[in-house]
Amino acid sequence: MISSVLPVGLEGLNNAAAQAERAAREIVQSGPRQDPVDPRGEAVDAGREDKMVQGVVGLIRAETAFKASAAVVKTGDQMLGVLLDIKA
User: DSSP alpha helices (H): ranges in 1-88?
Assistant: First the structure.
């Protein structure tokens, strides 16, 4: 069981890193706000801001997933250490 905990945690870390990369790419692709503003002061292309917000939310989700996966790896490492201490 413990032998499967570490690979699962590492896979979670890799998935979270890939998610963060996708979110960062989405933020970059949304680009700086250069859209003209209509007379009411609203952006003509609000979709660009939506993409940026989605990217930021994606980064927060990736951070949470990364922290959770790191906790899995840490707990698995601690369990393995305890078992080795008991065995010794």
Answer: 2-30, 46-87
